[in-house]
Design goal:
2 domains, 4 helices, about 40% helix, BUD31/G10-rel_CS, Putative G10 protein, BUD31, globular, nucleus
Length: about 150
């Protein structure tokens, strides 16, 4: 007779109790942003709020682990495994020049018209005076590390 597989979920690592309320708040904000109506917005603007919340949640986990050293490696890996944070985005934040990166789409040259990085990656000092720039992908107004 074959073995019956039962779901054995491990309990979360220690320290989860301290960060769980904040992650639940981010989850609620994400639900609200997903259910928000897109009337009166451009087609690209409808996803900007979701991208901002995703960035904030990943930045929260990044700050806890790398900057404040408030959580353990086990809890950090648990959060990445459960998709509370974007591991690829965090890996880019750790590299020089990408400390303020808003999303991964902004550095992919295949997503732009001219095969370069997004306009939000250009330092504000190199842009025209008084010109406001918004990224088409996420609505960012500048994530160059030199700003």
């Amino acid at each position: 007779m074959p073995k019956i597989k039962t779901s054995r979920t491990k309990p979360p690592p220690s320290g989860w109790d301290e960060i769980e309320p904040t992650l639940l708040e981010f989850e609620q904000k994400m639900r609200d942003a997903e259910n928000e109506t897109s009337t009166g917005k451009r087609r690209v603007e409808s996803t900007w709020s979701v991208m901002r919340i995703h960035h904030q949640r990943s930045r929260y986990i990044y700050d806890l682990f790398y900057i404040r050293k408030a959580i353990s490696r086990k809890l950090y890996d648990y959060c990445l495994k459960r998709n509370y944070a974007d591991g690829n985005l965090i890996a880019k934040w750790r590299k020089q020049g990408f400390e303020k990166l808003c999303c991964l789409q902004c550095i992919q040259p295949r997503d732009t018209n001219y095969g370069t990085a997004c306009i939000c990656r250009v330092p504000k000092a190199k842009l025209e005076e008084g010109r406001t720039v918004e990224c088409v992908h996420c609505g960012c107004r500048g994530c160059a590390s030199s700003d």
